[in-house]
Amino acid sequence: MTSFDEREDAFETEFAHREELKFKARERAVKSLALWAAQWLGKTSQDSEAYARDLIAVDLASPNPDVALELIAADLGPRGITQQEVRRVMDQFLAQAEISVRGSSSQASD
Fold this sequence. Notes:
CATH architecture: Orthogonal Bundle
Strand content: under 5%
Radius of gyration: 17 Å
Order of helices and strands: HHHH
Number of domains: 1
Number of helices: 4
CATH superfamily: Domain of unknown function DUF1476
Helix content: over 70%
CATH topology: Major Prion Protein
Distance between the termini: 28 Å
């Protein structure tokens, strides 16, 4: 194997790793957002978990990256929570999830 092939393989491996981390962070952020919304909606613990699972499944199945956010915003609209507020909270959860995923990834490689 040439040096070029080795570098190409390393870049492909690194790309796949980064994409996996982004996927995990997104899934965690959607779950956190759904649980946050469930509190506003007055759902029980069990119903909150089901709500989060359903929204994660919708998020995974849809090519639209904002579908879960839009569904949550629609659910929270009658409570006076705007889509901009939901998006702001999602951005916060996504930032936290990215830090968490990077941290757990670096610990796993130690």
